[in-house]
Amino acid sequence: MDLIDLLILCSVLVFLLLWRRFWFHTGGGPNNLPPGPPGWPLVGNLFQVILQRRPFIFVVRDLRAKYGPIFTMQMGQRTLVIVTSSELIHEALVHRGPTFASRPPDSPIRLVFSVGKCAMNSAEYGPLWRTLRRNFVTEVTSPTRIKQCSWIRQWALENHMKRFKREALENGSVEVLNNCRLTMCSILICICLGARISEDRIKNIERILKEVALMTTLKLPDFLPVLAPLFSRQMREAKELRKKQMECLVPLIRNRRAFIEKGENPNSEMVSPVGAAYIDSLFDLKPPSRGPLGEQEFVTLCSEVINAGTDTSATIIEWALLHLVQNQEIQDKLYREIAGCVGKGLVKEEDVEKMPYLGAIVKETLRRHPPSHFLLSHAAVKDTELGGYTIPMGVNVELYTAWVTEDPDIWKDPGDFRPERFLEGDGVDVDVTGTRGVKMVPFGAGRRICPAWSLGILHVNLMIARMVHAFKWLPDPESPPDPTETFAFTVVMKNPLKAVILPRS
To answer: At what angle do helices 176-193 and 199-215 cross, to 10 degrees?
Structure first.
């Protein structure tokens, strides 16, 4: 922001301060919104939050203690209804799922990358969303397709284990997150585009898609569009980044199309049979009211799958490994379960279904370290009621699900990492989809639940089982494990986990 932009912004702030006698109040009144903190005119609570200079989740926790399980914040021109209780989240997402199944309006920068909300995550509830989701479930996460693509995971995990061995030999320790992200990204690129490409190209795609994820996080103009002209540089940067995104994925998409239509396969990079890649189903897809999709939509839809699956799965694995490194007893118990199931053989996909302790570790990791503290923003399709208050159509309904996993009324000793709770205790029969009740919802619930959640669990279970079966994981004395959190699209460790690995005999 240059000097003149700064002067304009300061002038706006001075103007707003002159109007402080017109305080904004939420709650009660003719609109019957949930209660909430009083705000400044025009900007509401926006600058009050910014001036606190601390993560938004801590602001939400304080407001929850004061205003209860549902409250309103006026963030500039956006009205946010924050929902934090298990009962109200379940009511909104499950009992009244169709009513709360839409999305609020997107910012101009997000629309650049979603091509006008033509994506499963951002599409409004309606025919376009139904078509995209139904196609994805059929072509990617159906049992038949998952089984058909098992060779992709086999290939990627062979490279994964070789890379760990090489890195341990060269450096004395391994970095968990980067290796897991690279492996997950390679799997998802192959599932989406049918291509097996070099690690350098995978890393380039991963880097660009990470930049896209960070570029589309909420920024000041999203709350105050009137200030958008002061942030024109951000829009220019977004368009440049979109160009890079197109440049790295369109060649693969065109090569896939040539492979399907003409049998062409330069460098033999197309390895999935015709019809087995996600992109194959998109070439002829014609969503209602939109018509045939083009390269812009292809890039958006494939990027959505690669980005979401890479970050969430890799982050869960890193948090799980942190606890296995810190608690050797849990790790030894898991190893005994794996070895008892497969002996010295290779862990296969069907094997992980027979490992209840592995499943308990992954569930406890999801409870203690959900990929995000909030679900993606929801919106009501019409004016409706929740918790005795009116929820206007289109406002941001923000579901703070991390509180549910920390609630001592739901979980005994919620701060402890104890996988056994899912075998005998308060976690037995917990439904991670939230259908039967909300005790943890790492993938959302109801109509907008992550459509690939079962595939993600398979990837996480399989990778952890392979890694623990092959190596004993120990703390790196030069870089001790640090559980401090930070936000980078998902909730990750501030200092990435490094570990010493010893081959199992």
So the answer is: 100
CA dist 356 and 301 (Å) reads 34
- In degrees, to the nearest 5, what angle opens at C-alpha 103 toward C-alphas 97 and 104? 130
Question: Which of 117, 137, 131, 145 shows the shortest CA–CA distance to 453?
Answer: 137
Q: What are phi and psi of 219, to 5 degrees?
A: -130, 170
For the chain, which residues make up each domain, given as ranges? 77-503
- Binding site membership: which residues? 450
CA distance 406 to 412: 9
The C-alpha atoms of residue 250 and residue 273 are separated, in whole angstroms, by: 19
In the chain, what percentage of residues exceed pLDDT 90? 77
Q: Residue 255 phi/psi, 5° resolution?
A: -65, -35
Q: Which residues are annotated as a binding site for heme?
A: 450
Homologous superfamily of the 77-503 domain (CATH): Cytochrome P450 (1.10.630.10)
pLDDT tens sequence across 88-122: 999 999 999 999 999 999 888 999 999 999 999 99
Supply the pTM of this predicted model: 0.91
Q: Is the pLDDT of residue 33 over 90?
A: yes
